[in-house]
Structure formats: structure tokens, C-alpha cells
Amino acid sequence: MAPTLKQWLIDYIAYAFRYVSLGDGINIYTAASADWYGNPEEDALSERAERIDWRRVPSVHLHTRHHALSYLDPLGFRFYTPTIITTMIRGEDERGNLSESFMFHLERMADSGKYRDTHVCDLFNRSQRSAIRRYLKYQIHNCRRGIDYDELRSTLNAFDKCVAAARA
User: Fold this and answer.
1) Do residues 7 and 142 make contact, with C-beta atoms less than 8 angstroms apart?
2) What is the pTM of this model?
3) Helical H runs in 56-125?
């Protein structure tokens, strides 16, 4: 039996991001602690944070820390991207806070061509950029009500332009 489009996309994302680790990047707990001007509980969680395999990051930890995405560095943003988009494809973001926060950062990145000071093409390899494009297209054609389709299309177009400009 052929996989559904949803499962195919999840598998595609997993393959594209298969070698991504956090390395020395900022984890979600450190980012949350920074957002709260220091939080001993988040600091303790940071000590045990997953740094090797993004598939082992509990998506519920991202839902409750959606506000902390602003404090991630480029390595942290790349590490959590596949978990976040996979979570959204599965429909696990019922309140939409994680989706909204992620899309805000993705839009800014697409518009500027950079995440912080790191160019999109240096942050994400070709496969990963393709996975993000496919995710955006999937959302445009399959997402739930309440999503701004024009905003998704605009983000996709800006993402394509910044990648094309980097190639030129």
C-alpha cells in the first residue's frame, strides 16, 4: 500500500534532516529560560536536552515553549525545524501557537534571506530547503481553516527568491 501524502512528506523531511544535530546550538530550554530572564527548571532541563536526534525531541516541549523560538540561534532553529514541521503536518498543534511562531520566523528568514546572520543556503542544505518548500506547499493546499493562505504563498515565494538569489 502506498503511503499517504502526509506520511510521504513526513518521511521526506526525516530523510532531508537525518544528519542534523544541535551541536553547540541553543536548545529550546535554554531559549525558554532566556525568554523568562532565567528559569531554574528550564536550566535543569537544558542539561539533559536532546542534542543528537531531533526525532527524540518531545513535541509537547515545543508546544509549551513556542515563544522561545525567538531565542534560538541558527543551529537551534535548524535542529528544531523538522520536529516543528512534522508536528504541524500531523495536526498536533491544536492551538496554533507553535505554527504561528514558527511561521513568523520562517517569513522573516525568507524575506531577509537569513536567520540571524546566517544565510538560508548556509543554514539549510538543498534537501532541507526542498523539504521546507514541500511543507509550505502542503500547508497551502491542505491546511486547516484560520491559516492565512496569502501569507503562506508569500513566504514560499520569498523563500524561493532568496534561494535563487544565493545561487546567482
Assistant:
1) no
2) 0.90
3) 59-63, 74-89, 97-112, 120-123
Tell me the mean pLDDT in the region 39-63: 92
Dihedral over Cα of 142, 60, 67, 16: its sign: negative
Which one, of 92, 80, 101, lies nearest residue 13 by Cα? 80
pLDDT in tens, 59-74: 889 989 999 999 999 9
In eight-state DSSP terms, residue 70 is G
CB 115 within 8 Å of CB 123: yes
What are residue 118's DSSP bridge partners? 115
d(CA 134, CA 3): 16
CB 113 within 8 A of CB 119: yes
